[in-house]
Protein backbone atom coordinates (compact mmCIF):
# COMPACT_ATOMS: atom_id res chain seq x y z
CA UNK A 1 0.00 0.00 0.00
CA UNK A 2 2.72 2.40 1.03
CA UNK A 3 4.60 1.41 -2.12
CA UNK A 4 1.67 2.33 -4.31
CA UNK A 5 1.39 5.64 -2.53
CA UNK A 6 5.03 6.40 -2.97
CA UNK A 7 4.86 5.37 -6.61
CA UNK A 8 1.89 7.70 -6.92
CA UNK A 9 3.92 10.47 -5.33
CA UNK A 10 6.76 9.87 -7.76
CA UNK A 11 4.36 9.84 -10.71
CA UNK A 12 2.67 13.06 -9.61
CA UNK A 13 6.00 14.76 -9.01
CA UNK A 14 7.03 14.10 -12.61
CA UNK A 15 3.61 15.10 -13.92
CA UNK A 16 3.85 18.38 -12.04
CA UNK A 17 7.21 19.21 -13.58
CA UNK A 18 5.41 18.99 -16.91
CA UNK A 19 2.60 21.09 -15.48
CA UNK A 20 5.07 23.93 -14.90
CA UNK A 21 6.28 23.67 -18.51
CA UNK A 22 2.69 23.60 -19.79
CA UNK A 23 1.88 26.70 -17.71
CA UNK A 24 4.72 28.49 -19.48
CA UNK A 25 3.35 27.44 -22.86
CA UNK A 26 -0.11 28.60 -21.83
CA UNK A 27 1.17 32.13 -21.31
CA UNK A 28 2.89 32.06 -24.71
CA UNK A 29 0.19 30.35 -26.74
CA UNK A 30 -3.02 30.36 -24.72
CA UNK A 31 -2.83 34.01 -23.70
CA UNK A 32 -0.70 35.56 -26.43
CA UNK A 33 -0.93 33.31 -29.48
CA UNK A 34 2.81 32.77 -29.85
CA UNK A 35 3.50 29.49 -31.60
CA UNK A 36 6.52 27.94 -29.87
CA UNK A 37 7.60 24.65 -31.45
CA UNK A 38 10.94 24.57 -29.69
CA UNK A 39 9.75 23.88 -26.15
CA UNK A 40 12.28 21.04 -25.73
CA UNK A 41 15.13 23.48 -26.32
CA UNK A 42 14.02 25.94 -23.64
CA UNK A 43 13.35 23.14 -21.17
CA UNK A 44 16.82 21.77 -21.91
CA UNK A 45 18.46 25.13 -21.31
CA UNK A 46 16.73 25.38 -17.93
CA UNK A 47 17.77 21.85 -16.97
CA UNK A 48 21.39 22.20 -18.08
CA UNK A 49 21.93 25.64 -16.56
CA UNK A 50 20.60 24.39 -13.24
CA UNK A 51 22.61 21.17 -13.43
CA UNK A 52 25.84 23.03 -14.22
CA UNK A 53 25.25 25.44 -11.35
CA UNK A 54 24.40 22.86 -8.72
CA UNK A 55 26.42 19.68 -9.45
CA UNK A 56 29.60 19.09 -7.48
CA UNK A 57 32.90 19.72 -9.18
CA UNK A 58 33.93 16.96 -11.58
CA UNK A 59 37.09 16.40 -13.61
CA UNK A 60 36.89 16.92 -17.34
CA UNK A 61 33.78 19.11 -17.26
CA UNK A 62 33.44 22.82 -16.76
CA UNK A 63 30.92 23.99 -14.24
CA UNK A 64 30.07 21.98 -11.18
CA UNK A 65 29.66 25.04 -9.00
CA UNK A 66 27.98 23.12 -6.20
CA UNK A 67 25.50 25.96 -5.59
CA UNK A 68 22.18 25.52 -3.74
CA UNK A 69 19.34 23.97 -5.73
CA UNK A 70 17.26 27.15 -5.49
CA UNK A 71 20.03 29.10 -7.20
CA UNK A 72 20.13 26.48 -9.94
CA UNK A 73 16.37 26.72 -10.53
CA UNK A 74 16.41 30.48 -10.68
CA UNK A 75 19.40 30.33 -13.01
CA UNK A 76 17.65 27.78 -15.22
CA UNK A 77 14.53 29.93 -15.47
CA UNK A 78 16.50 33.07 -16.19
CA UNK A 79 18.65 31.29 -18.77
CA UNK A 80 15.66 30.01 -20.74
CA UNK A 81 13.85 33.35 -20.36
CA UNK A 82 16.86 35.24 -21.65
CA UNK A 83 17.11 32.93 -24.65
CA UNK A 84 13.43 33.57 -25.42
CA UNK A 85 14.05 37.30 -25.12
CA UNK A 86 16.87 37.11 -27.66
CA UNK A 87 14.97 34.90 -30.07
CA UNK A 88 11.82 36.98 -29.71
CA UNK A 89 13.66 40.24 -30.25
CA UNK A 90 14.95 38.85 -33.55
CA UNK A 91 11.69 37.39 -34.84
CA UNK A 92 8.64 38.95 -33.19
CA UNK A 93 8.70 41.97 -35.47
CA UNK A 94 8.40 39.65 -38.44
CA UNK A 95 5.39 37.65 -39.58
CA UNK A 96 4.11 35.29 -36.91
CA UNK A 97 5.20 32.09 -38.67
CA UNK A 98 8.83 33.14 -38.38
CA UNK A 99 8.63 32.55 -34.66
CA UNK A 100 7.62 28.93 -35.26
CA UNK A 101 10.55 28.40 -37.62
CA UNK A 102 12.96 30.17 -35.30
CA UNK A 103 11.93 28.25 -32.19
CA UNK A 104 12.09 24.95 -34.04
CA UNK A 105 15.55 25.82 -35.33
CA UNK A 106 16.67 26.94 -31.90
CA UNK A 107 15.62 23.63 -30.34
CA UNK A 108 17.58 21.69 -32.96
CA UNK A 109 20.66 23.86 -32.46
CA UNK A 110 20.40 23.55 -28.68
CA UNK A 111 20.17 19.78 -28.90
CA UNK A 112 23.24 19.63 -31.15
CA UNK A 113 25.11 21.99 -28.85
CA UNK A 114 24.32 19.78 -25.86
CA UNK A 115 25.66 16.78 -27.75
CA UNK A 116 28.84 18.48 -28.88
CA UNK A 117 29.90 20.91 -26.18
CA UNK A 118 31.25 18.02 -24.17
CA UNK A 119 33.41 20.15 -21.93
CA UNK A 120 30.33 21.92 -20.60
CA UNK A 121 27.43 19.52 -21.08
CA UNK A 122 29.05 16.12 -20.84
CA UNK A 123 28.13 15.42 -24.49
CA UNK A 124 25.91 12.41 -25.21
CA UNK A 125 26.32 11.09 -21.64
CA UNK A 126 24.91 14.26 -20.18
CA UNK A 127 25.29 15.34 -16.59
CA UNK A 128 24.68 13.07 -13.63
CA UNK A 129 24.78 13.47 -9.84
CA UNK A 130 22.39 16.40 -10.06
CA UNK A 131 21.51 17.01 -6.41
CA UNK A 132 17.97 16.04 -5.45
CA UNK A 133 15.90 18.08 -3.03
CA UNK A 134 15.88 16.52 0.47
CA UNK A 135 18.74 14.19 -0.45
CA UNK A 136 19.39 13.58 3.25
CA UNK A 137 16.00 11.83 3.45
CA UNK A 138 16.81 9.48 0.59
CA UNK A 139 17.20 6.38 2.77
CA UNK A 140 13.58 6.79 3.88
CA UNK A 141 12.00 6.26 0.48
CA UNK A 142 8.41 7.27 1.30
CA UNK A 143 9.23 10.39 3.18
CA UNK A 144 11.64 11.34 0.41
CA UNK A 145 9.00 10.82 -2.27
CA UNK A 146 6.42 12.89 -0.44
CA UNK A 147 8.86 15.67 0.40
CA UNK A 148 9.71 15.92 -3.29
CA UNK A 149 6.05 15.93 -4.24
CA UNK A 150 5.46 18.71 -1.74
CA UNK A 151 8.20 20.79 -3.36
CA UNK A 152 6.61 20.34 -6.76
CA UNK A 153 3.13 21.13 -5.49
CA UNK A 154 4.45 24.36 -4.03
CA UNK A 155 6.27 25.22 -7.27
CA UNK A 156 3.18 24.56 -9.41
CA UNK A 157 0.99 26.60 -7.06
CA UNK A 158 3.49 29.45 -7.09
CA UNK A 159 3.71 29.47 -10.90
CA UNK A 160 -0.05 29.15 -11.19
CA UNK A 161 -0.70 32.00 -8.79
CA UNK A 162 1.92 34.25 -10.38
CA UNK A 163 0.68 33.65 -13.92
CA UNK A 164 -2.95 33.94 -12.95
CA UNK A 165 -2.19 37.22 -11.21
CA UNK A 166 -0.46 38.48 -14.34
CA UNK A 167 -3.21 37.36 -16.69
CA UNK A 168 -5.87 39.11 -14.61
CA UNK A 169 -3.82 42.25 -14.13
CA UNK A 170 -4.04 45.23 -16.49
CA UNK A 171 -0.98 43.69 -18.17
CA UNK A 172 -3.01 40.59 -18.99
CA UNK A 173 -5.84 42.77 -20.24
CA UNK A 174 -3.48 44.35 -22.74
CA UNK A 175 -2.51 40.87 -23.96
CA UNK A 176 -6.18 40.08 -24.48
CA UNK A 177 -6.75 43.37 -26.26
CA UNK A 178 -3.87 42.64 -28.61
CA UNK A 179 -5.25 39.19 -29.27
CA UNK A 180 -8.76 40.46 -29.98
CA UNK A 181 -7.84 43.42 -32.19
CA UNK A 182 -4.24 44.42 -32.63
CA UNK A 183 -4.99 47.53 -34.70
CA UNK A 184 -7.36 48.88 -32.09
CA UNK A 185 -4.93 48.08 -29.26
CA UNK A 186 -2.16 49.96 -31.06
CA UNK A 187 -4.43 52.96 -31.49
CA UNK A 188 -4.80 52.87 -27.70
CA UNK A 189 -1.06 53.12 -27.20
CA UNK A 190 -0.23 49.45 -26.64
CA UNK A 191 2.97 48.28 -28.29
CA UNK A 192 2.32 44.76 -29.63
CA UNK A 193 5.96 43.75 -30.10
CA UNK A 194 6.89 44.78 -26.60
CA UNK A 195 4.02 42.90 -24.96
CA UNK A 196 4.56 39.77 -27.03
CA UNK A 197 8.23 39.81 -26.19
CA UNK A 198 7.44 40.07 -22.48
CA UNK A 199 4.94 37.21 -22.62
CA UNK A 200 7.33 35.06 -24.63
CA UNK A 201 10.21 35.65 -22.22
CA UNK A 202 8.14 35.09 -19.09
CA UNK A 203 6.67 31.91 -20.59
CA UNK A 204 10.17 30.74 -21.49
CA UNK A 205 11.33 31.49 -17.99
CA UNK A 206 8.60 29.28 -16.55
CA UNK A 207 9.47 26.50 -19.01
CA UNK A 208 13.11 26.70 -17.99
CA UNK A 209 12.11 26.51 -14.36
CA UNK A 210 10.08 23.37 -15.10
CA UNK A 211 13.04 21.89 -16.95
CA UNK A 212 15.37 22.67 -14.08
CA UNK A 213 13.07 21.07 -11.52
CA UNK A 214 12.65 18.01 -13.71
CA UNK A 215 16.41 17.51 -13.99
CA UNK A 216 16.74 17.54 -10.23
CA UNK A 217 14.04 14.94 -9.70
CA UNK A 218 15.47 12.53 -12.27
CA UNK A 219 19.00 13.15 -11.05
CA UNK A 220 20.67 13.05 -14.44
CA UNK A 221 20.05 14.64 -17.82
CA UNK A 222 21.17 13.86 -21.36
CA UNK A 223 20.48 15.40 -24.79
CA UNK A 224 18.12 12.56 -25.75
CA UNK A 225 15.66 13.77 -23.09
CA UNK A 226 15.11 16.93 -25.12
CA UNK A 227 13.94 15.70 -28.50
CA UNK A 228 10.87 17.05 -30.35
CA UNK A 229 8.82 14.34 -28.59
CA UNK A 230 8.96 16.52 -25.49
CA UNK A 231 7.62 19.50 -27.42
CA UNK A 232 4.80 17.33 -28.73
CA UNK A 233 3.95 16.05 -25.25
CA UNK A 234 3.70 19.54 -23.79
CA UNK A 235 1.54 20.75 -26.67
CA UNK A 236 -0.74 17.75 -26.20
CA UNK A 237 -0.96 18.58 -22.49
CA UNK A 238 -2.03 22.16 -23.10
CA UNK A 239 -4.50 21.36 -25.88
CA UNK A 240 -6.09 18.45 -24.01
CA UNK A 241 -6.31 20.39 -20.74
CA UNK A 242 -7.65 23.52 -22.43
CA UNK A 243 -5.51 26.20 -23.99
CA UNK A 244 -5.97 29.62 -22.42
CA UNK A 245 -6.82 28.17 -19.03
CA UNK A 246 -4.10 27.85 -16.37
CA UNK A 247 -5.91 25.03 -14.54
CA UNK A 248 -6.37 23.32 -17.88
CA UNK A 249 -2.61 23.34 -18.40
CA UNK A 250 -2.06 21.61 -15.06
CA UNK A 251 -4.86 19.10 -15.61
CA UNK A 252 -3.64 18.31 -19.12
CA UNK A 253 -0.11 17.73 -17.86
CA UNK A 254 -1.28 15.20 -15.27
CA UNK A 255 -3.59 13.39 -17.73
CA UNK A 256 -1.13 13.16 -20.59
CA UNK A 257 1.68 12.12 -18.27
CA UNK A 258 -0.62 9.40 -16.88
CA UNK A 259 -1.28 8.11 -20.40
CA UNK A 260 2.42 8.26 -21.16
CA UNK A 261 3.54 6.51 -17.96
CA UNK A 262 0.83 3.81 -18.05
CA UNK A 263 1.35 2.99 -21.69
CA UNK A 264 5.09 2.95 -21.03
CA UNK A 265 4.75 0.29 -18.36
CA UNK A 266 2.38 -1.74 -20.53
CA UNK A 267 4.89 -1.60 -23.38
CA UNK A 268 7.72 -2.75 -21.15
CA UNK A 269 5.74 -5.67 -19.72
CA UNK A 270 4.10 -6.87 -22.96
CA UNK A 271 6.86 -6.55 -25.53
CA UNK A 272 10.12 -8.52 -25.51
CA UNK A 273 13.21 -6.52 -24.66
CA UNK A 274 14.47 -6.26 -28.23
CA UNK A 275 11.15 -4.83 -29.47
CA UNK A 276 10.63 -2.29 -26.75
CA UNK A 277 12.40 0.64 -28.35
CA UNK A 278 10.15 0.34 -31.37
CA UNK A 279 7.03 -0.34 -29.34
CA UNK A 280 7.67 2.87 -27.41
CA UNK A 281 6.47 4.85 -30.41
CA UNK A 282 3.03 3.44 -29.62
CA UNK A 283 3.05 5.80 -26.65
CA UNK A 284 3.24 8.78 -29.01
CA UNK A 285 0.45 7.31 -31.12
CA UNK A 286 -1.67 6.89 -28.03
CA UNK A 287 -1.23 10.55 -27.06
CA UNK A 288 -2.07 11.56 -30.62
CA UNK A 289 -5.26 9.50 -30.47
CA UNK A 290 -6.24 11.00 -27.09
CA UNK A 291 -5.60 14.44 -28.52
CA UNK A 292 -7.96 13.75 -31.42
CA UNK A 293 -10.59 12.28 -29.11
CA UNK A 294 -10.56 15.31 -26.82
CA UNK A 295 -10.64 17.74 -29.73
CA UNK A 296 -13.64 15.94 -31.19
CA UNK A 297 -15.56 15.87 -27.90
CA UNK A 298 -14.43 19.21 -26.49
CA UNK A 299 -12.87 21.37 -29.19
CA UNK A 300 -11.47 23.87 -26.67
CA UNK A 301 -9.95 21.17 -24.48
CA UNK A 302 -11.31 19.81 -21.22
CA UNK A 303 -11.37 23.12 -19.36
CA UNK A 304 -11.33 25.28 -22.48
CA UNK A 305 -10.83 29.00 -22.64
CA UNK A 306 -14.43 29.76 -21.79
CA UNK A 307 -13.54 29.37 -18.14
CA UNK A 308 -11.03 32.19 -18.23
CA UNK A 309 -13.40 34.49 -20.05
CA UNK A 310 -16.32 33.82 -17.79
CA UNK A 311 -14.30 34.78 -14.77
CA UNK A 312 -12.97 37.95 -16.29
CA UNK A 313 -15.85 40.37 -15.63
CA UNK A 314 -15.87 39.39 -11.98
CA UNK A 315 -12.17 40.10 -11.74
CA UNK A 316 -12.62 43.66 -12.94
CA UNK A 317 -15.70 44.43 -10.90
CA UNK A 318 -13.76 44.09 -7.65
CA UNK A 319 -12.17 47.54 -7.73
CA UNK A 320 -15.43 49.15 -8.79
CA UNK A 321 -17.32 47.64 -5.89
CA UNK A 322 -14.87 49.27 -3.56
CA UNK A 323 -15.67 52.50 -5.26
CA UNK A 324 -19.41 52.52 -4.95
CA UNK A 325 -19.06 52.80 -1.21
CA UNK A 326 -17.16 56.01 -1.55
CA UNK A 327 -19.62 57.66 -3.94
CA UNK B 1 6.74 72.87 -25.95
CA UNK B 2 5.90 76.57 -25.94
CA UNK B 3 6.19 76.88 -29.71
CA UNK B 4 2.97 74.98 -30.36
CA UNK B 5 0.93 77.04 -27.98
CA UNK B 6 -0.34 79.22 -30.81
CA UNK B 7 0.49 76.91 -33.74
CA UNK B 8 -1.75 74.09 -35.02
CA UNK B 9 -2.17 71.03 -32.80
CA UNK B 10 -2.01 68.81 -35.86
CA UNK B 11 -0.25 69.71 -39.09
CA UNK B 12 0.40 67.67 -42.20
CA UNK B 13 2.53 68.88 -45.04
CA UNK B 14 2.74 67.33 -48.50
CA UNK B 15 1.47 63.88 -47.52
CA UNK B 16 1.39 61.30 -50.30
CA UNK B 17 0.58 57.63 -50.34
CA UNK B 18 0.11 55.15 -53.15
CA UNK B 19 -1.23 51.60 -53.18
CA UNK B 20 0.19 49.35 -55.90
CA UNK B 21 1.18 52.37 -57.97
CA UNK B 22 -2.20 54.07 -57.65
CA UNK B 23 -2.08 57.28 -55.69
CA UNK B 24 -4.70 57.41 -52.93
CA UNK B 25 -3.44 60.67 -51.44
CA UNK B 26 -1.15 63.10 -53.22
CA UNK B 27 0.56 66.12 -51.73
CA UNK B 28 -2.13 66.82 -49.14
CA UNK B 29 -1.56 69.46 -46.50
CA UNK B 30 -3.86 70.12 -43.61
CA UNK B 31 -3.74 71.90 -40.34
CA UNK B 32 -5.99 71.72 -37.33
CA UNK B 33 -5.96 74.72 -35.03
CA UNK B 34 -6.20 74.58 -31.27
CA UNK B 35 -9.82 74.09 -30.27
CA UNK B 36 -10.97 73.85 -33.88
CA UNK B 37 -13.61 71.46 -35.17
CA UNK B 38 -12.57 70.84 -38.75
CA UNK B 39 -14.54 68.79 -41.24
CA UNK B 40 -12.98 66.62 -43.91
CA UNK B 41 -15.38 65.70 -46.69
CA UNK B 42 -15.23 64.34 -50.18
CA UNK B 43 -16.79 61.65 -52.36
CA UNK B 44 -16.12 57.98 -51.71
CA UNK B 45 -12.59 56.98 -52.59
CA UNK B 46 -11.33 60.54 -52.25
CA UNK B 47 -8.61 59.39 -49.86
CA UNK B 48 -10.04 60.63 -46.56
CA UNK B 49 -9.51 57.41 -44.63
CA UNK B 50 -6.04 57.01 -46.10
CA UNK B 51 -5.25 60.53 -44.97
CA UNK B 52 -6.64 59.71 -41.54
CA UNK B 53 -4.60 56.54 -41.23
CA UNK B 54 -1.44 58.46 -42.01
CA UNK B 55 -2.26 61.13 -39.46
CA UNK B 56 -2.98 58.40 -36.89
CA UNK B 57 0.27 56.60 -37.60
CA UNK B 58 -1.24 53.33 -38.79
CA UNK B 59 -0.14 53.94 -42.37
CA UNK B 60 3.31 55.28 -43.25
CA UNK B 61 3.25 58.11 -45.79
CA UNK B 62 5.44 57.75 -48.89
CA UNK B 63 6.44 61.36 -48.42
CA UNK B 64 5.47 64.37 -46.36
CA UNK B 65 5.63 65.35 -42.74
CA UNK B 66 3.24 65.13 -39.79
CA UNK B 67 3.42 67.19 -36.62
CA UNK B 68 1.41 66.76 -33.45
CA UNK B 69 1.68 69.65 -30.97
CA UNK B 70 4.58 70.96 -32.98
CA UNK B 71 6.54 67.68 -32.71
CA UNK B 72 7.54 65.70 -35.77
CA UNK B 73 5.85 62.30 -35.51
CA UNK B 74 6.16 61.22 -39.15
CA UNK B 75 8.24 58.13 -38.42
CA UNK B 76 6.36 57.01 -35.32
CA UNK B 77 4.00 54.04 -35.16
CA UNK B 78 0.32 54.23 -34.26
CA UNK B 79 1.02 53.11 -30.69
CA UNK B 80 2.87 56.36 -29.97
CA UNK B 81 0.12 58.78 -31.03
CA UNK B 82 -2.14 58.62 -28.00
CA UNK B 83 0.69 59.53 -25.63
CA UNK B 84 1.36 62.48 -27.94
CA UNK B 85 -2.21 63.56 -27.33
CA UNK B 86 -3.84 62.30 -30.50
CA UNK B 87 -6.64 59.73 -30.43
CA UNK B 88 -8.61 58.26 -33.30
CA UNK B 89 -11.74 56.23 -33.95
CA UNK B 90 -12.25 53.86 -36.85
CA UNK B 91 -14.69 54.15 -39.74
CA UNK B 92 -15.77 50.59 -38.97
CA UNK B 93 -15.60 50.45 -35.15
CA UNK B 94 -13.12 48.06 -33.61
CA UNK B 95 -14.20 47.23 -30.05
CA UNK B 96 -12.59 44.27 -28.26
CA UNK B 97 -15.65 42.06 -28.70
CA UNK B 98 -15.13 39.62 -25.82
CA UNK B 99 -14.28 42.27 -23.26
CA UNK B 100 -16.94 44.11 -21.32
CA UNK B 101 -17.65 47.75 -22.07
CA UNK B 102 -15.81 48.71 -18.89
CA UNK B 103 -12.75 46.63 -19.79
CA UNK B 104 -12.74 48.11 -23.28
CA UNK B 105 -12.67 51.61 -21.87
CA UNK B 106 -10.02 50.71 -19.29
CA UNK B 107 -7.75 49.73 -22.17
CA UNK B 108 -7.60 53.38 -23.10
CA UNK B 109 -5.89 54.37 -19.85
CA UNK B 110 -2.28 55.47 -20.28
CA UNK B 111 0.68 55.03 -17.94
CA UNK B 112 -1.15 52.46 -15.84
CA UNK B 113 1.41 50.86 -13.58
CA UNK B 114 -0.47 47.55 -13.71
CA UNK B 115 0.23 47.39 -17.44
CA UNK B 116 3.95 47.14 -16.72
CA UNK B 117 4.85 43.61 -15.85
CA UNK B 118 7.28 44.50 -13.08
CA UNK B 119 4.85 46.85 -11.35
CA UNK B 120 2.00 44.38 -11.74
CA UNK B 121 4.14 41.98 -9.71
CA UNK B 122 6.14 44.07 -7.33
CA UNK B 123 4.06 47.20 -6.80
CA UNK B 124 0.58 45.75 -6.34
CA UNK B 125 -0.61 48.66 -4.20
CA UNK B 126 0.30 51.21 -6.86
CA UNK B 127 -1.28 49.05 -9.56
CA UNK B 128 -4.50 48.73 -7.60
CA UNK B 129 -4.58 52.45 -6.99
CA UNK B 130 -4.10 53.24 -10.68
CA UNK B 131 -6.72 50.68 -11.62
CA UNK B 132 -9.24 52.08 -9.15
CA UNK B 133 -8.66 55.61 -10.42
CA UNK B 134 -8.94 54.44 -14.04
CA UNK B 135 -12.14 52.55 -13.24
CA UNK B 136 -13.70 55.63 -11.73
CA UNK B 137 -12.79 57.71 -14.75
CA UNK B 138 -14.01 55.00 -17.10
CA UNK B 139 -17.39 54.95 -15.35
CA UNK B 140 -17.75 58.68 -15.80
CA UNK B 141 -16.90 58.46 -19.48
CA UNK B 142 -19.21 55.52 -20.02
CA UNK B 143 -21.90 57.58 -18.39
CA UNK B 144 -21.07 60.60 -20.55
CA UNK B 145 -21.33 58.41 -23.64
CA UNK B 146 -24.66 56.85 -22.61
CA UNK B 147 -23.45 53.28 -22.16
CA UNK B 148 -23.90 52.91 -18.40
CA UNK B 149 -26.62 50.30 -18.73
CA UNK B 150 -24.25 48.12 -20.77
CA UNK B 151 -21.16 48.52 -18.64
CA UNK B 152 -20.78 44.83 -17.74
CA UNK B 153 -21.90 43.54 -21.15
CA UNK B 154 -19.39 42.21 -23.66
CA UNK B 155 -18.82 44.76 -26.41
CA UNK B 156 -20.07 42.24 -28.98
CA UNK B 157 -23.69 42.98 -27.98
CA UNK B 158 -23.43 46.70 -28.82
CA UNK B 159 -25.11 48.20 -31.88
CA UNK B 160 -23.05 49.98 -34.53
CA UNK B 161 -23.71 53.40 -33.05
CA UNK B 162 -22.97 52.24 -29.53
CA UNK B 163 -19.67 50.85 -30.75
CA UNK B 164 -18.77 54.29 -32.04
CA UNK B 165 -19.56 55.75 -28.64
CA UNK B 166 -17.49 53.05 -27.01
CA UNK B 167 -14.50 53.89 -29.19
CA UNK B 168 -14.84 57.50 -28.24
CA UNK B 169 -14.95 56.64 -24.54
CA UNK B 170 -11.87 54.48 -24.98
CA UNK B 171 -9.69 57.25 -26.38
CA UNK B 172 -11.09 59.86 -24.00
CA UNK B 173 -9.53 57.83 -21.17
CA UNK B 174 -6.22 59.23 -22.36
CA UNK B 175 -7.41 62.87 -22.30
CA UNK B 176 -6.39 63.50 -25.91
CA UNK B 177 -5.90 67.06 -27.14
CA UNK B 178 -6.76 66.03 -30.69
CA UNK B 179 -9.42 63.56 -31.76
CA UNK B 180 -9.87 62.13 -35.24
CA UNK B 181 -13.38 60.85 -35.90
CA UNK B 182 -13.97 58.76 -39.02
CA UNK B 183 -17.64 58.92 -40.04
CA UNK B 184 -19.18 58.90 -36.55
CA UNK B 185 -22.66 59.26 -38.05
CA UNK B 186 -22.56 56.49 -40.62
CA UNK B 187 -25.13 53.80 -39.94
CA UNK B 188 -26.33 55.38 -36.71
CA UNK B 189 -30.04 55.80 -35.95
CA UNK B 190 -31.28 59.43 -35.78
CA UNK B 191 -31.77 59.59 -31.99
CA UNK B 192 -28.31 58.26 -31.29
CA UNK B 193 -26.89 60.51 -33.99
CA UNK B 194 -28.28 63.55 -32.24
CA UNK B 195 -26.66 62.38 -29.02
CA UNK B 196 -23.33 61.69 -30.69
CA UNK B 197 -23.36 65.20 -32.16
CA UNK B 198 -24.08 66.70 -28.75
CA UNK B 199 -21.13 64.82 -27.31
CA UNK B 200 -18.82 65.97 -30.08
CA UNK B 201 -19.84 69.57 -29.50
CA UNK B 202 -19.38 69.26 -25.77
CA UNK B 203 -15.95 67.71 -26.21
CA UNK B 204 -14.95 70.53 -28.49
CA UNK B 205 -16.26 73.06 -26.00
CA UNK B 206 -13.92 71.53 -23.43
CA UNK B 207 -11.01 72.45 -25.67
CA UNK B 208 -10.46 69.21 -27.60
CA UNK B 209 -9.54 69.84 -31.22
CA UNK B 210 -11.46 67.58 -33.57
CA UNK B 211 -10.97 66.47 -37.14
CA UNK B 212 -14.18 64.98 -38.44
CA UNK B 213 -14.68 62.90 -41.56
CA UNK B 214 -18.35 62.83 -42.41
CA UNK B 215 -20.74 62.28 -45.30
CA UNK B 216 -23.66 63.74 -43.44
CA UNK B 217 -23.60 67.34 -44.70
CA UNK B 218 -26.15 68.46 -42.16
CA UNK B 219 -23.85 67.36 -39.39
CA UNK B 220 -20.86 69.07 -41.01
CA UNK B 221 -22.77 72.33 -41.47
CA UNK B 222 -23.97 72.31 -37.90
CA UNK B 223 -20.67 71.42 -36.27
CA UNK B 224 -17.83 72.76 -38.34
CA UNK B 225 -16.82 76.32 -39.06
CA UNK B 226 -14.35 75.16 -41.68
CA UNK B 227 -14.22 72.16 -43.99
CA UNK B 228 -11.61 70.73 -46.29
CA UNK B 229 -12.90 68.98 -49.39
CA UNK B 230 -10.85 66.15 -50.86
CA UNK B 231 -11.23 64.57 -54.29
CA UNK B 232 -8.92 62.12 -56.02
CA UNK B 233 -6.44 62.30 -53.19
CA UNK B 234 -6.02 66.07 -53.24
CA UNK B 235 -7.51 69.12 -51.64
CA UNK B 236 -10.22 70.53 -53.85
CA UNK B 237 -11.48 73.40 -51.75
CA UNK B 238 -11.74 74.64 -48.22
CA UNK B 239 -13.72 77.23 -46.31
CA UNK B 240 -16.99 77.66 -44.50
CA UNK B 241 -19.38 74.73 -45.15
CA UNK B 242 -22.06 76.96 -46.67
CA UNK B 243 -19.61 78.40 -49.21
CA UNK B 244 -17.90 75.15 -49.99
CA UNK B 245 -21.05 73.25 -50.94
CA UNK B 246 -21.86 75.95 -53.47
CA UNK B 247 -18.39 75.73 -55.02
CA UNK B 248 -18.86 74.44 -58.60
CA UNK B 249 -15.74 72.27 -58.41
CA UNK B 250 -17.09 70.57 -55.31
CA UNK B 251 -20.50 70.04 -56.85
CA UNK B 252 -18.86 68.54 -59.91
CA UNK B 253 -16.70 66.20 -57.83
CA UNK B 254 -19.76 64.89 -55.98
CA UNK B 255 -21.84 64.56 -59.14
CA UNK B 256 -18.94 62.85 -60.88
CA UNK B 257 -18.92 60.40 -58.03
CA UNK B 258 -22.62 59.72 -58.42
CA UNK B 259 -22.47 59.30 -62.18
N1 LIG C 1 -5.09 49.30 -48.21
C1 LIG C 1 -5.38 49.69 -49.47
N2 LIG C 1 -4.91 48.98 -50.52
C2 LIG C 1 -5.18 49.37 -51.79
N3 LIG C 1 -5.90 50.46 -52.10
C3 LIG C 1 -6.39 51.21 -51.10
C4 LIG C 1 -6.15 50.86 -49.72
N4 LIG C 1 -6.75 51.80 -48.94
C5 LIG C 1 -7.34 52.67 -49.77
N5 LIG C 1 -7.13 52.33 -51.05
C6 LIG C 1 -7.59 53.08 -52.22
O1 LIG C 1 -7.29 54.44 -52.02
C7 LIG C 1 -8.35 55.27 -52.44
C8 LIG C 1 -8.81 56.14 -51.31
O2 LIG C 1 -9.51 55.34 -50.37
P1 LIG C 1 -10.02 55.88 -48.96
O3 LIG C 1 -8.91 56.61 -48.32
O4 LIG C 1 -10.62 54.75 -48.21
O5 LIG C 1 -11.15 56.89 -49.40
P2 LIG C 1 -12.35 57.54 -48.56
O6 LIG C 1 -12.15 57.25 -47.14
O7 LIG C 1 -12.28 58.99 -48.91
O8 LIG C 1 -13.62 56.94 -49.09
C9 LIG C 1 -9.43 54.35 -52.99
O9 LIG C 1 -9.28 54.30 -54.39
C10 LIG C 1 -9.10 53.02 -52.37
O10 LIG C 1 -9.49 51.98 -53.23
MG1 LIG D 1 -13.39 56.29 -45.64
TrEMBL record, chain A:
The keyword Transmembrane helix applies. GO terms for cellular component: plasma membrane. It comes from the Bacteria. The chain crosses the membrane at residues 6-27, 34-57, 69-92, 99-121, 141-163, 199-220, 226-242, 249-271, 277-297. Signal peptide: none annotated. Residues 314-327 have a biased composition (Polar residues). The keyword Translocase does not apply. Keywords: Cell membrane, Membrane, Transmembrane, Transmembrane helix. It is a multi-pass membrane protein. Pfam families: BPD_transp_2. It is found in: Cell membrane. GO terms for molecular function: branched-chain amino acid transmembrane transporter activity. InterPro entries: ABC_transp_permease (IPR001851), LivM-like (IPR043428). Residues 308-327 are annotated as: Disordered. This is ABC transporter permease. It comes from Puniceibacterium antarcticum.
UniProtKB/TrEMBL annotation, chain B:
GO terms for molecular function: ATP binding; ATP hydrolysis activity. Residues 10-257 form the ABC transporter domain. Keywords: ATP-binding, Nucleotide-binding, Transport. CDD domains: ABC_Mj1267_LivG_branched. GO terms for cellular component: plasma membrane. The keyword Transport applies. This is ABC transporter domain-containing protein.
Amino acid sequence: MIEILSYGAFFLTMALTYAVIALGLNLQWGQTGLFNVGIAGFVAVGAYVSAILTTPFSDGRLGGFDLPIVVGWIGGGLGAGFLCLLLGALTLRLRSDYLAIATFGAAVVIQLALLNLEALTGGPFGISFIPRPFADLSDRANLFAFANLAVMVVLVLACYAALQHLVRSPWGRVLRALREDETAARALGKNPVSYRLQAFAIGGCVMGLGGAAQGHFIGFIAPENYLPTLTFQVWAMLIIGGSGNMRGAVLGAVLVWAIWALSGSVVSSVFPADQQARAASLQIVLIGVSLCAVLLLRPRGILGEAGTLRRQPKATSTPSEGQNTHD
Amino acid sequence: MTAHREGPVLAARGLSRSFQGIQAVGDMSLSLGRGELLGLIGPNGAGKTTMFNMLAGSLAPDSGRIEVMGQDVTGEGAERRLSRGLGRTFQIPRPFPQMTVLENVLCGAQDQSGEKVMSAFFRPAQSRKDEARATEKARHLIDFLLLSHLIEQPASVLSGGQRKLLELARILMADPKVVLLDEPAAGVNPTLLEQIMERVVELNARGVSILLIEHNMEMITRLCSRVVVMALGRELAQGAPADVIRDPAVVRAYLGDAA
